[in-house]
Amino acid sequence: MKIAVLGTGEVGQRLATKLATLGHEVTMGSRTADNAEARQWAADNGGAHGTFADAAGAAELVVNATGGLVSLAVLEAAGADSLRGKVLIDVSNALDFSDGFPPRVVTPDGGSLAEQLQKAFPETRIVKTLNTMNNTVMVEPSRVPGHHNVFLSGNDEHAKAEVAALLRSFGWASTQITDLGDLSSARATELLMPLWLRLYGVLGPVDFNISVVAA
Amino acid sequence: MKIAVLGTGEVGQRLATKLATLGHEVTMGSRTADNAEARQWAADNGGAHGTFADAAGAAELVVNATGGLVSLAVLEAAGADSLRGKVLIDVSNALDFSDGFPPRVVTPDGGSLAEQLQKAFPETRIVKTLNTMNNTVMVEPSRVPGHHNVFLSGNDEHAKAEVAALLRSFGWASTQITDLGDLSSARATELLMPLWLRLYGVLGPVDFNISVVAA
How many interchain CB pairs under 8 A, A with B? Predict the structure, then answer.
């Protein structure tokens, strides 16, 4: 599949590399056409690179791996025409560190970043997922032993099914993928980040994740 | 130990009953001295009941099991003199359902309810815990199979150790009790409630909890 990964940071690099390894035609998108990280990633991984608009325009599926505080601006740069009708996987978190640690989770209009993006791009099929864990775990869930979870939120059932299939190709078992409901449920997973950061403080730089255990 | 449980709702009843079963002298506190639920609970469980001030004043340890939106007023009714120097276990969550579901988590001053209470009662040793699960699981963790977690947040290490011992008497293993740090870490667990509510929507009325799984 032709996939655009928007964002050249650690999360974007990790997802883009995994997707390329799985045989997808990946274009890494960034603000400028000559971004050094994107160019290097493309050279190292047999991928392509370009502006956000170039990457999204050529893709069948788009991954938002930019920082949550700039995601709306990034999608506006990509443009509604490039995003129309496409599945967009939103893995971003909007964390404001301006007052230090712990950061504040920015909740646009009292909701979630994912809903803010959906409102701005109503014809894009946004699915929030993978935003509750370290990027190493996103693409290699077996790094954490036993049962643990990845969550899905979105308004389009077909889009969620497509994203779940992609997650399975990453190594997630169906029993680990929990569909929380429509996109408003992204509020719940975006608000998990403060706990993740505290657990990181307690556990240190090890792979970990949240598991839902039911009787 | 002499323990005051403030609040006559389901959470308060559950905790008060467990504590009485374990041999503690429990007083259920409520707004008025003649609260029907508190009187009934006391009659059924060999406990006492009284106003918030009566209950807290006589207690060595206080449990705040009131709704988070009224907790500050409840502690003010109990009075600083009744709370001074005591460990206060805060299990409350401040959820505003005025705009329907999902509720908004109220975060006073951008922080947590627990910190708001601590600021108002600086000489009380507040420990936030048990606020991330159903009340059935709070007092009987074995209802959920295998590993799952309860979190501790507080500024006073001795108070946290005392609360951890109480949790162990409820059936929590030491390996299940995760100390997240000072009371500002209560922000992380208070923000878990939206996920809990979504999971309740998915799983239905079964006992479940969050587990932290690390490599």
Answer: 118
CB contact under 8 Å between A191 and B189, yes or no, is no
Contact A208 B203 (CB under 8 A): no
Q: B173, B161, B197, B39: which is closest to B89 by C-alpha? A: B161
Domains of chain B plus CATH, in order, are 2-203 (3.40.50.720)
ipTM of the complex model: 0.95
Collect all residues from A whose CB is shorter than 8 A from any CB in B.
Answer: 99, 102, 104-105, 110, 143-148, 178-181, 184-185, 187-189, 191-192, 194-195, 197-199, 201-203, 206-215
| Amino acid, res. B88 | L
Please list the pLDDT of chain A residue by residue as tens digits (215 residues). Answer: 999 999 999 999 999 999 999 999 999 999 999 999 999 999 999 999 999 999 999 999 999 999 999 999 999 999 999 999 999 999 999 999 898 877 889 989 889 999 999 999 999 999 999 999 999 999 999 999 999 999 999 999 999 999 999 999 999 999 999 999 999 999 999 999 999 999 999 999 999 999 999 99
Q: Which residue of B has its CA nearest to A182?
A: B198
**A101 Cα to chain B: minimum distance (Å):** 10
- Structural contact between residues A160 and A154, judged by C-beta atoms closer than 8 angstroms: yes
Spatial distance between the Cα atoms of A138 and A15, rounded to a whole number of angstroms:
8
Say if residues A79 and A55 touch (Cβ distance below 8 Å): no
Using left for φ > 0, alpha for ψ between -120 and 50, and beta otherwise, residue B79 falls in left
What is the end-to-end Cα distance of chain A in Å, rounded? 39
CB A141 within 8 A of CB A176: yes
A32 touches A9 (CB < 8 A): no
Task: Round to whole Å and give the CA distance between A101 and A92.
Answer: 19
CA distance A143 to B152: 27
- Nearest CA to CA, how far is A195 from chain B (Å)? 4
Alpha-carbon distance of B166 to B89, in angstroms, equals 10
Residues of B in contact with A143 (CB under 8 A): 215
Q: A201: Cβ–Cβ under 8 A, 6 or more apart, which residues?
A: B180, B181
For residue A143, count other CB atoms closer than 10 A to its CB. Answer: 17
Element (H, E) at A74: helix A71-78
